[in-house]
């Protein structure tokens, strides 16, 4: 099947509407699934209480410095996304997620109005309805990270933009009029302080340039959130 309209959420929804099974597993077009991925993620649904699950996302053959940095930082890793956040709930990225179709009938499909962040949106909506989230580390998907510093910047700028749209949509459930991520902002200044010492003392290229890449990543995220806050008329920094 083919979805003529642009947008990942629209393509996912078309697949879901045409699916015949009870378990809906999704991944992205730029991903490579481990040969046991479907079998392992299906096992998680052996318990009837499991309605929303996901597996691990690993870096695919990192070659460039930025790819190696992204692998070490756990960018896109489910373990990173699932780390406890005092403000935002966890979720599974659409690179590696699965749902009971009956759950999607209950809460609705992916929000096609969102340019990005539809995976977080559906994960949060599931949890607002009182359902749990189940991680299956043996269900593995491989994903190639951004290869250049510019690509890393654009990736996190997009994350920042989508975060503001998500905040606007969910702030009633989040019980907040505004949100400021002091961890990310503090990380920008910490990275700046580490640049010169790391360039002098770092033993490998990655050690020497990690603070620069940290600065690019965190600054891009903040920049995206500033742009998104203006666009969506919210304060999410």
TrEMBL record:
Residues 3-107 form the Glycosyltransferase 2-like domain. Pfam families: Glycos_transf_2 (PF00535). GO terms for molecular function: transferase activity. The keyword Transport does not apply. It comes from the Archaea. Keywords: Membrane, Transferase, Transmembrane, Transmembrane helix. This is Glycosyltransferase. It comes from Candidatus Iainarchaeum sp.
